[in-house]
Amino acid sequence: MGTTIEGVYADFMRYLMENTQRFFEMTTPNGTEIWARLRDTIVIILATPNGWDIREQAVLAKAAIRASLVTKENVGQLLQFVTESEAAVHYALANQDGDWLKKKDIFAVIDCGGSTVDSTIYRCVSTAPLILKEVCPSECVQAGGIFVNREVRKLFEKLVQGSLFSDPEIIRSMTSAFESDLKPSFDGTMEEYNLKFGSLKDNDPTVGIHKGSITLSDNDLRPAFDLVTKRIIASCFETLIKQRTKYVVLVGGLAESPYVRRVLRKELAKYDIEMIMVGDHWKKAAGEGALISYIKQFVVARAVKATFGGCVYQNYDKKLHRDRKHMIQVYADGKERVEGAFHVWVKKGTILQGTFAHKLPYHRAWDATSMSDGDLIRNLGVVGIEVFGWEGDGVPIWCKDEEGKGVLSGMRHICTLNADLSALAGQLRTKNEPGGKKFYRVDYEVCIYFGGTQLRAKLQWKENGVLRESPVAIMPYVS
Ligand SMILES: Nc1ncnc2c1ncn2[C@@H]1O[C@H](COP(=O)(O)OP(=O)(O)OP(=O)(O)O)[C@@H](O)[C@H]1O
Ligand SMILES: [Mg+2]
């Protein structure tokens, strides 16, 4: 009732932060003093599912602000995102003996989780520094650990049918005993497995129950696991083979199952693919890998999945803008311009690496003849540029319709970069446009750069020779 997803995340985050602080202060000598000193510079790294992009990140960022993990001002610097599979790669590289990964190797990360199995394929572009590139979009299949439990519950229902044990409450305790005892140990090497679920008084030889334990045959249990392993094989293997994958890094809770591991290892071996286990039973691959990726500043090259640009007043170009000839306006600087044009900053398919950075000069102009100082300050206070993303091919000419209101179909409004340039009011000189009218002009730059794992944008301008910046906006790189 009235609970938002942002609120739920904010509660979680607050809880985690409070307890992290408590734990840190209790277990670190001089912990309270150290925490207080470093609190405002703590970088929070969130490992998120592979398919998440700016929509989800924006919710998490708002939640993090609401939970006071970061502030509105420092969120761009102190809140970082990394995908779970990327974090797993870093974890696997840091925790494996030998340098298994060589330049040009293709490898995959398969994350066998509770409800989904996600696979991502990377190519190693270079090992020092480590540069990885996603080869193709991640795949996700509904084949996690809960499906094993679902099958096993059906098995229990079938086995105890007609007996006193055919009771939802008892089936539930059997399934929960399976989850904690048998699921982690089942390896498919014995003929029978015992599962303790009740008390010594629970007996019924006709359904294989003896002193609170039920006997299950290998043949009974295998199909429950096979359902999932078969789905994983059916969904991921074709791509693994097609992409000539050399290694598969297996992570996630279900990958801890000795049976699942064995089946997948055997199946992969048929195609000469080697399996790399990271031993993630403490569930550290995502968390620790996220930290490693930040500390070591590993570079992952990514291809931008959409074309990004700003919505601008563009100089009228009859080759491009003929269809809106009737919309030409004479701008304050005397030039003929059209509104709502798409000015491309980064094209779809551009490979981003640590060094990627672009600056684009922009300016705004206002007619000075009728402008009071107050109006000028007000105008300068809200200089902004709307950022749009285009996921299709090619480069559209327009972002918006003729009226400048409706966004064209296929264009996605990402964010608006805003800057308060009002402090410049006193320094601005008027200029003369070709027709002799006076106008004010203010210059600023849009900076687009690859900040570790994300494409970011901000505005920059000079105030009395001092460089100023707007808050940083994060562009989604995945469509
Ligand atoms: N040692 C183990 N042996 C077998 N299965 C295990 C083991 N440990 C955890 N699991 C299973 O792994 C699943 C949870 O895995 P994980 O924690 O990676 O999932 P998740 O990240 O929460 O889910 P998802 O990624 O689908 O959102 C559960 O189904 C659990 O039963
Ligand atoms: Mg998971």
TrEMBL record:
Top-rank taxon: Eukaryota
Membrane spanning residue stretches: none
SUPFAM superfamilies from the UniProt entry: Actin-like ATPase domain
PANTHER family to which the protein is assigned, alphabetical: ALPHA KINASE/ELONGATION FACTOR 2 KINASE (PTHR14187), HEAT SHOCK 70 KDA PROTEIN 12A (PTHR14187:SF5)
Protein name: Actin-like ATPase domain-containing protein
Organism: Serendipita vermifera MAFF 305830
Organism phylogeny: Eukaryota, Fungi, Dikarya, Basidiomycota, Agaricomycotina
